[in-house]
Amino acid sequence: MEKMRLCDVPVGKTIYIDKILAKKSEKLRLLDFGMVKNATITPVFVSPSGDPVAYEIKNSIIALRNSLASGIIVKEEEG
User: Fold this and answer.
1) Domains plus CATH for the chain?
2) Of 39, 76, 48, 47, nearest to 63 (Cα)?
3) Could you tell me which residues are beta bridge partners of residue 73?
4) Residues 68-79: tens digit of each pLDDT
5) Which of 8, 42, 48, 60 has a CA between 20 and 30 Å from the CA of residue 15?
6) Whole-number Å distance between alpha carbons of 61 and 23
7) How far is residue 76's CA from residue 79's CA, in Å, rounded to a whole number?
8) What are 3-62's pLDDT values in tens digits?
9) Which phi and psi (to 5°) does residue 74 adopt?
10) What whole-number distance in Å separates Cα of residue 16 and Cα of residue 30?
11) What sign has the CA pseudo-torsion 30, 34, 39, 42?
12) Is 8 within 8 Å of 75 (Cβ atoms)?
């Protein structure tokens, strides 16, 4: 099971969240968005400058800067 950073996932690829490596305040905000272990997340749009990126999670679209997305570890398979 290959793990990678969320910011490295190509647009359109659905992936599973493994863990969040962020400051407590940022982590709590991400948890409020539904970014919990094994939740699916899909990059859907990259801004023209490449940062931020829009992600679909739990039927919502959120934009995250690459600096924050780099602290979200994802995997290709649930479990």
Assistant:
1) 3-75 (2.30.30.90)
2) 47
3) 5, 19
4) 999 999 999 766
5) 48
6) 22
7) 10
8) 999 999 999 999 999 999 989 999 999 999 999 999 999 999 999 998 999 999 999 999
9) -125, 165
10) 14
11) negative
12) no
CA 5/CA 24 separation, integer angstroms: 18
Q: How would you label 44-69 residue by residue, b for 16+ Cβ within 10 Å and e otherwise?
A: eeeeeeeebbebebeeeebebeeebb
pLDDT at 77: 79
Q: Residue 28, Cα to own-chain centre: how many angstroms?
A: 14
Quote the strand ranges of the chain, DSSP E.
3-5, 15-20, 40-46, 53-57, 60-64, 72-75
